[in-house]
Amino acid sequence: MLMGGSGTNFSGRLRGACSKVQPVMIVAAWIVLMASVAAVLHCYVGYPLWWRVIGRRRPPLPLPPTQEEPSLPLISVVVVGYNEAGCISRRVENLLQCVYPTERLEIIIASDGSDDGTEQLAALAAGGDARVQVRHFTERRGKVRVLNEVCPQAKGSILVLSDANVDFAPDTFVASWYSDHAKGRLTPSLKAFTGNWKRG
Question: Is residue 105 a part of any domain in this protein?
């Protein structure tokens, strides 16, 4: 009888303890759920709204200069490629079609030891255009070493590094340069962009 009574009391105490723990677990689970929902809402709603409000408080950017404006900087575009015969002609043609003053654009095509005629195709696509320089390295050095040799020779105050298999929008260079260029505002609008913009 004593054993039975002790077992009954223990079971009762256990059920009582469980009944007290369950509300705590429910509250904890609810807090975790609400925190997760809040984090998701912050990422997809709160954060964009915050930057929209901040953006409205900033003064509007001035309109980009016209193509003839003398403040447009000299831009050097450097394309380094290895065996890019399949796309180098299109790359050169695309760069030449960009709306920018002829005397303010320099295009350097560097063939890194290509053996498929990349440099010949680039020169053919340039058609003698003075904006295009084609350099051919007989031995493959790797992109970084070629850039280290070619970039210091670029004349532009802005250096654009690009791959051979991308296209720039026609107004990329003009639309990307604002009249307050002392702050170096550059916003490239490219179909595909794998290079880096930087001030010289």
Answer: yes
If we measure between CA atoms, which residue out of 85, 86, 143 comes closest to residue 110? 143
Domain that holds residue 11: 1-58
CA dist 194 and 165 (Å) reads 9
Residue 106 lies inside a defined structural domain of this protein: yes
- Residue 2 covered by a domain: yes
Q: What is the pLDDT of residues 6-43, one digit of tens each?
A: 555 656 565 665 565 566 677 777 788 888 888 888 77
Contact call for residues 77 and 151 (beta carbons, < 8 A): no
Amino acid, single-letter form, for residue 36: S
Statement to judge: residues 170 and 106 lie in one domain: yes
Measure CA 13 to chain center. 63
What are the respective helix, strand and coil percentages of the chain, to the nearest 5? Answer: 50, 15, 35
* pLDDT per position as a tens digit, 153-194: 999 988 999 999 999 988 888 766 653 444 444 444 333 333
Amino acid at the residue 113: G
> Which pair of structure tokens corresponds to residue 45?
């709603």
Q: In whole angstroms, what is the distance from residue 42 CA to residue 56 CA?
A: 19
